[in-house]
């Protein structure tokens, strides 16, 4: 029996807050960004990054515009220690970038952390301890006061140690880890104690980082927690409130956004959301969300290709093709109606009105994707895309079975050319496959008389040879298949048929698509002619052309 049973879970309690302000707020500026790719993200990898990979990712983060980058847990890991030393000794940290290192507030760990940072211009020391009810009561079995004492003595230790190294500009970040599971009054109490001990100023603020270490509630409750915290914490003007959301419920970005509306100043996250379990808040999505609202994200994400390449190489995790903003497929419309709407709206864009295109929340061009990529139809687009080109550009409405068949021919061609096909080339491929075959049989002339049944007399040409056909049947197609049956000595069954009028150029034409079964084999015929009857007859002749040729060889 399955243990699937919702009754063992409890709803997350509401926050008691009156007149909450955040629902009426709009985010009008970018937060202070802190990338935690190299620490938090790295910790979650199957194969943690090598020093070389970390350098590559660090260089990218600097290039994207991050001014605060958490680079590791140097006291806990030799590769992290070596990496921090390499950054400093190889002069890789620009003057306007601050590295951040995580450590637990224990004496030997703090000493080792300071040792790793020797010679750095500025640094953020990030200390944390767990404050949630479940951790206090079930893991540590400690009182609130004992937990506060751990935090405060840690701050005291850091303070004493960094004072011995005035050549570096030090900042402190404190995280009440598992903040979302901590009673709000206790979170404020412990943070007040930390702030009091550190003595921040308006010029050198302390960072209080409030992690949704596990995302436990809907984002509105998280926002309530942040607003409540901001209202009750003392010395608010000497504090930067930082968010570190996770994505357990799939709302890491939403929670961070609502948390910013609720008054937070700073966010921690990773590129593409790598991190423990379901990952950290995805910085790229949050930044692009701001961007799409006309807010400067203060990160330059224009070269998405490079970002993806570096992140995939360093994390060994492929970016999902549907990943917001950066996934390979997120700007490609497969459906013809979407493509049509996109095409139409693109032509009416004016700079004054701002971006307003159906199905495209942002201009893909901003992230290095061309419009062709959006509205193009290539082999990858499958039958729908190929059919879209033929219909939109050439007026052909291929039936589904032929879409499937023809898409394979397009794919074979793109594969042999090892590149995407232009629209014109898709048409040429169609012509070669169905319309312009050299050995095709076609009507020279025909006469159809209706006299009870349909009497068909036709002259057919194939390979310079002409011959006459004569038969009767129910309709011209039936009559022709009877005549062909006689000529070939075996039945010709029409298994698929569709036709439509064509309006391209001056004269209206008809197009017929059919499939016939002759013996064991199926053959496709397509014809565009002056009228429906000749389109039908030519399509049938085109379909059986190979059989007629084979038969001729046999007779000869
Ligand atoms: Zn995290």
UniProtKB/TrEMBL annotation:
Q: Catalytic activity, per the record?
A: 3-methyl-2-oxobutanoate + acetyl-CoA + H2O = (2S)-2-isopropylmalate + CoA + H(+)
Organism phylogeny? Bacteria, Pseudomonadati, Pseudomonadota, Gammaproteobacteria, Oceanospirillales
The record, for PANTHER family, names: 2-ISOPROPYLMALATE SYNTHASE, PTHR46911
SUPFAM superfamilies reported in the protein's UniProt record: 2-isopropylmalate synthase LeuA, allosteric (dimerisation) domain, Aldolase, post-HMGL domain-like
Renumbered to this chain, region (Regulatory domain) spans: 437-556
Q: Name one Pfam family in it.
A: HMGL-like
This enzyme's EC code(s): 2.3.3.13
User: Which compartments does it reside in?
Assistant: Cytoplasm
Indicate which residues the UniProt annotation says bind Mg(2+). 40, 244, 246, 280
What's the stated role of this polypeptide? Catalyzes the condensation of the acetyl group of acetyl-CoA with 3-methyl-2-oxobutanoate (2-ketoisovalerate) to form 3-carboxy-3-hydroxy-4-methylpentanoate (2-isopropylmalate).
Q: What main location does UniProt list?
A: cytoplasm
Superkingdom, natural source = Bacteria
Can you tell me which family this protein belongs to? Belongs to the alpha-IPM synthase/homocitrate synthase family. LeuA type 2 subfamily.
Q: What does the record note on quaternary structure?
A: Homodimer.
InterPro entries per record: 2-isopropylmalate_synth_dimer, AIPM/Hcit_synth_CS, Aldolase_TIM, IPM_Synthase, LeuA-like_post-cat, LeuA_allosteric_dom_sf, LeuA_N_DRE-TIM, PYR_CT
The name this protein goes by in its record: 2-isopropylmalate synthase
Residue ranges occupied by any Pyruvate carboxyltransferase domain in the UniProt entry: 31-305
Q: Which cofactors must be present for this protein to function?
A: Mg(2+)
Q: In which pathway does it act?
A: Amino-acid biosynthesis; L-leucine biosynthesis; L-leucine from 3-methyl-2-oxobutanoate: step 1/4
Write the record's keywords in alphabetical order, separated by commas: Amino-acid biosynthesis, Branched-chain amino acid biosynthesis, Cytoplasm, Leucine biosynthesis, Magnesium, Metal-binding, Transferase
């Amino acid at each position: 029996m399955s243990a699937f049973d919702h009754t063992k879970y409890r709803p997350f309690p509401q926050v008691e807050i009156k007149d909450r302000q955040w629902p009426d707020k709009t985010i009008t500026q970018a937060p202070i960004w802190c990338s935690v790719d190299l620490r938090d993200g790295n910790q979650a990898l199957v194969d943690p990054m090598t020093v070389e990979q970390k350098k590559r990712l660090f260089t990218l983060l600097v290039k994207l515009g991050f001014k605060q980058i958490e680079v590791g847990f140097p006291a806990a890991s030799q590769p992290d220690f070596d990496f921090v030393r390499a950054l400093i000794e190889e002069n890789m940290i620009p003057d306007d970038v601050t590295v951040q290192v995580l450590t637990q507030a224990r004496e030997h760990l703090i000493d080792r952390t300071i040792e790793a940072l020797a010679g750095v211009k500025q640094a953020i020391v990030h200390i944390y301890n767990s404050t949630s009810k479940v951790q206090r009561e079930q893991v540590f079995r400690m009182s609130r006061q004992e937990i506060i004492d751990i935090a405060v003595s840690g701050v005291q230790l850091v303070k004493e140690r960094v004072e011995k190294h005035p050549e570096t500009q030090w900042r402190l970040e404190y995280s009440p880890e598992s903040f979302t599971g901590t009673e709000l009054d206790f979170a404020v109490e412990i943070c007040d104690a930390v702030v009091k001990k550190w003595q921040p100023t308006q010029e050198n603020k302390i960072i209080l980082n409030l992690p949704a270490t596990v995302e436990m509630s809907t984002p509105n409750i998280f926002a309530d927690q942040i607003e409540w915290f901001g209202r009750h914490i003392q010395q608010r003007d000497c504090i930067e409130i930082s968010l570190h959301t996770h994505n357990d419920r799939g709302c890491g970005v939403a929670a961070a956004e609502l948390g910013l509306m609720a008054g937070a100043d700073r966010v921690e996250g990773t590129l593409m959301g790598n991190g423990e379990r379901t990952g950290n808040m995805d910085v790229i999505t949050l930044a692009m969300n701001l961007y799409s609202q006309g807010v400067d994200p203060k990160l330059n994400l224009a070269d998405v290709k490079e970002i993806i390449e570096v992140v995939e190489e360093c994390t060994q995790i492929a970016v999902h093709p549907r990943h917001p903003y950066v996934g390979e497929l997120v700007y490609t419309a497969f459906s013809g109606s979407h493509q049509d709407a996109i095409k139409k709206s693109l032509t009416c864009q004016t700079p004054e009105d701002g971006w307003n295109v159906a199905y495209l929340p942002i201009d893909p061009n901003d992230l290095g994707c061309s419009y062709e990529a959006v509205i193009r139809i290539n082999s990858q687009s499958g039958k729908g895309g190929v059919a879209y080109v033929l219909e939109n550009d050439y007026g052909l409405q291929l039936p589904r079975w032929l879409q499937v068949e023809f898409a394979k021919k397009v794919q074979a061609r793109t594969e042999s050319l090892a590149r995407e096909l232009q629209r014109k080339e898709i048409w040429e491929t169609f012509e070669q496959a169905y319309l312009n075959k050299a050995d095709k049989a076609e009507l020279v002339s025909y006469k159809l008389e209706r006299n009870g049944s349909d009497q068909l007399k036709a002259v057919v040409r194939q390979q310079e040879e002409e011959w006459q056909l004569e038969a009767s049947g129910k309709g011209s197609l039936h009559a022709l298949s009877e005549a062909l049956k006689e000529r070939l000595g075996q039945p010709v069954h029409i298994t698929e048929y569709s036709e439509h009028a064509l309006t391209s150029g001056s004269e209206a034409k008809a197009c017929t698509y059919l499939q016939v079964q002759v013996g064991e084999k199926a053959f496709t015929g397509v014809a565009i002619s002056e009228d429906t009857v000749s389109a039908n007859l030519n399509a049938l002749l085109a379909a059986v052309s190979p059989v007629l040729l084979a038969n001729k060889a046999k007779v000869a």
